[in-house]
């Protein structure tokens, strides 16, 4: 599976269709999910599973629109030389579970997301996430920006 196909499978099948069983075939056992780690969730592949379950529990009737996906080699830093893949995507649905510090409202929620995977042996080894979620509509709209790297720094875990 190419890095682009891996990202497409994760977004469409795992996130969109709820095929949580595929996580075992897409991610390293010891992978790091920055968003899950920032919130104190389990480590490794179990953390990615918790991340996806939490999102799907909080966002009902979720719909995905996948934008550009780009893949290449990391040029510098701790992952220099590793395969990386990035996707810009959008979601929309109903806010049916507590999420990002907001109590479930039943109202609309949407977001723009950037997912970045660093791969090892063709599987997800590291997951960084950035999103801007918009809760509500009209005058009552509220935007929340989340960057997993910033959240780890704030929690003293980076």
UniProtKB/TrEMBL annotation:
GO terms for biological process: polyketide metabolic process. Pfam families: SnoaL. Signal peptide: none annotated. It comes from the Bacteria. This is Ester cyclase.
